[in-house]
Design brief:
Shape: globular
CATH architecture of the largest domain: 3-Layer(aba) Sandwich
Largest sheet: 8 strands, mixed
Number of helices: 12
CATH superfamily of the largest domain: Alpha/Beta hydrolase fold, catalytic domain
Distance between the termini: 31 Å
CATH topology of the largest domain: Rossmann fold
Strand content: 35-45%
CATH class of the largest domain: Alpha Beta
Number of strands: 40
Number of domains: 2
Structural class: alpha+beta
């Protein structure tokens, strides 16, 4: 196959005594005219390959119908108002509605935010919003082109108009102070660079107080290294501001509590109580009860537990955690204050279980909820109604109202809400089983196997999906592509690899830093198990992953190219020697180590996909997907890896680079873009795994 020509420079640098060639470094300069020309050529080449795929039209038509399915999210309450997202299937972005009561919201409510009016092409999106507790003002963050940078604006909920007021932040959700005229947000010294050109990382993290009636104030500044973040949360009784301080994506943090006083319409912060000032574990704010502060933590509990600490004693230097909910066999994934108790969300073998307990941890009751994946929890000490959202493989969100009992002997009541016009599943009937493979070191690696209930026999085309990083759990949840793949007759395997959060901190630690190779070994074990059990064969197996999952796919392509017929690394981290030099990449040293440290460099070099491409190897058909405005995992990763793989390919299978315009890492993409990306990924995988799809109608 004749690929677009990509220049190779004689770029070699010595790192920790090793000479490392980087012939495609020129592709890092996204603003250079020659890179723009290369992008155009690669786009044209990829489109030529994709246009010839026999299943593309069928997948395109089906995915368009799947994403157009009417849907609604999970209701939540902010500032005594109810909020809900809806999409009737005709708009690029979800529309947000509000009402004073749940019943009014169920009937429709009124539009409070419509991101579809913010841009002509549907690429501006809502990333977060927060309502002042008195319900008067709403601070919301708009993202343009999928950027992680956010512009915060303030809307008057009485008049429905925006105030002439805006600030810029990143990785932040506004936290309103009790004066209802000021909120906290996080920002960085460096200006936004949506193209993702080289920087030294996001330096100078700052936690700011934005006052509508005055100048912004800097509450905290962090100079100890790149990508230190701080997040503020105000207790429901408005007495405390809880600030979580974390370096990058580490799962260990500090936690401070600032006493709040409000007089003459202005909230002031007292000196912080440094509840945790040594990041020795993960600590998450749950609620306060007077001077009692409730936290989740994995301190001495890899599966997580709930503890409380007396802030009065802590202010005097006596920090002692009292256990409220002990560690369980299942992994504690989320806790929400609800009435006079707690909603506890667990992952039991990667499947959600929600339990309500009293505030002292007693009288635990498992809620009667269907199987699925947790989408969200919403509760408050101020009300006895809470909400739970679940998704399934073929349905985006089912919302449930939880009525908490006044009677200590009564159980919570669970009611499913009908919030949007439901349409039938686009997937055929299917069976989900829980399987386990044995990794290289003997570890049992679970995965969900999803097979259509049809008459097909023998090895069938199968799509393996994985992530394995940052303590993020992978569940059998909703993604538009799953229904389409199953409808085409393919099988689906969703792997729970080490490095994820399905089985607690120990499971996570076994898949990061010097142990990162375990993640790839786990995925290989699942792939080999699928082949050995007759579910599929190597020439019928495709592998897919996004972001850190894109790294997973890149590593599998370079370590075991014989095991897969097709590979779909999407917005992946693929250059493990330079990831820390761009935008927020330095944050990821929690999982990948620091390439500037010799020991970490050696580990990363051993699995870095870009640096393990070998000339003349027969690689599987590979579709590398990225976006030109991704400012999280900058597109240079995909550009350089794609160029290297095209130059090295010793077989006939194509290697293409699909590059989207005016979008970022994935969040906020329009429905049309979501459908088009999935259609291309699945049509490519289907063609190269032998999956025959029906003719397009």
């Amino acid at each position: 196959m004749r690929y677009p020509e990509t220049r190779q420079d004689a770029c070699v640098e010595t790192l920790h005594g090793r000479e490392i060639a980087d012939p495609y470094r020129w592709l890092e300069d996204a603003d250079a005219p020659e890179v723009a020309a290369w992008v155009t050529e690669q786009r044209d080449f990829a489109e030529g390959v994709l246009a010839d795929l026999p299943g593309r039209a069928w997948f395109t038509e089906l995915l368009a119908r799947i994403v157009a399915r009417p849907r609604a999210g999970m209701p939540f309450v902010r500032g005594e108002r109810f909020f809900l997202s809806r999409n009737d299937g005709t708009t690029a972005q979800d529309v947000w509605y509000t009402a004073d009561t749940l019943e009014e919201l169920e009937r429709g409510g009124s539009v409070v935010l419509d991101p579809n009016t913010w841009s002509s092409d549907g690429t501006a999106s809502l990333s977060t919003f927060s309502v002042a507790k008195d319900g008067s003002l709403l601070a919301y963050a708009a993202s343009e082109g999928g950027s992680d940078w956010q512009k915060f604006r303030v809307k008057d909920l009485t008049t429905g108009t925006d105030l002439d007021d805006a600030v810029v932040g990143k990785f932040s959700s506004p936290a309103w102070l009790p004066d209802h005229r000021s909120f906290l947000y996080t920002t960085f010294d460096e200006a936004a660079d949506a193209r993702g050109t080289a920087t030294a990382g996001l330096q100078g993290g700052r936690l700011m107080i934005h006052r509508l009636d005055g100048d912004d104030e800097e509450l905290l500044r962090f100079g100890e290294g790149p990508m230190t973040l701080a997040f503020g949360q105000v207790s429901d009784d408005l007495a405390w501001l809880i600030v979580t301080i974390v370096r990058g994506t580490e799962n260990r943090n500090r936690l401070w509590a600032y006493p709040l006083t409000t007089a003459n319409g202005r909230t002031e912060l007292g000196e912080p109580v440094k509840v945790v000032d040594t990041p020795d574990a993960e600590y998450g704010f749950v609620r306060t009860d007077g001077a009692q502060l409730y936290l989740t933590t994995d301190l001495e509990a890899p599966h997580g537990r709930v503890v409380r600490v007396d802030l009065g004693w802590a202010a005097r230097g006596d920090v002692e955690f009292a256990e409220v909910v002990p560690e369980a066999a299942a992994t504690l994934s989320a806790v929400e204050a609800a009435g006079d108790g707690l909603l506890l969300a667990y992952l039991d073998d990667a499947e959600p279980v929600v339990v309500w307990t009293r505030l002292d941890g007693t009288a635990g009751v498992e809620l009667d909820l269907p199987a699925g994946a947790l989408v969200g929890l919403d509760g408050s000490p101020d009300r006895r109604t809470a909400f739970v959202g679940l998704s399934t493989l073929d349905a985006p969100t089912a919302a449930f109202r939880i009525e908490l009992p006044d009677d200590p002997d009564a159980d919570p009541r669970v009611e499913r809400l009908e919030l949007a016009g439901a349409s039938a599943s686009f997937a055929p009937a299917f069976t989900v089983t829980r399987e386990r493979a044995t990794s290289a070191d003997g570890t049992q690696v679970p995965y969900f196997l999803v097979v259509p209930d049809d008459d097909a026999s023998g090895p069938r085309p199968t799509l393996l999906y994985g992530y394995g990083g940052f303590k993020i759990p992978v569940a059998a949840d909703y993604r538009p592509g799953w229904s389409a793949w199953l409808a085409a007759g393919g099988a689906l395997a969703i792997a729970n690899l080490r490095g994820g959060g399905e089985f607690g901190t120990t499971w996570y630690d076994q898949g990061r830093g010097p142990h990162k190779q375990n993640v790839f070994d786990d995925a290989v074990a699942v792939a080999e198990h699928l082949v050995a059990t007759g579910v599929t064969a190597s020439d019928r197996l495709a592998v897919h992953g996004r972001s850190n999952g894109g790294l997973l796919v890149g590593a599998l392509v370079t370590q075991r190219p014989d095991l897969f017929a097709a590979a779909l690394p999407t917005v992946g981290v693929l250059d493990l020697l330079r990831f820390h030099k761009f935008t927020g990449g330095a944050a990821w040293t929690s999982d990948y180590g620091d390439p500037d440290v010799a020991a970490d460099f050696e580990v990363a070099l051993a699995y870095s996909p870009l640096h393990n491409v070998r000339d003349g190897v027969t690689y599987p058909a590979t579709l590398i997907a990225t976006a030109d405005h991704d400012d999280r995992v900058v597109p240079l990763h995909s550009f350089k890896f794609g160029a290297a793989l095209q130059a090295a390919q010793g077989g006939e299978a194509p290697v293409i680079v699909r590059i989207e315009s005016s979008v970022g890492h994935g969040a906020g993409k329009s429905l049309a873009m979501i459908a088009a990306e999935w259609a291309d990924l699945l049509a490519f995988a289907a063609h190269h795994t032998g999956l025959t799809v029906p003719a397009a109608t």
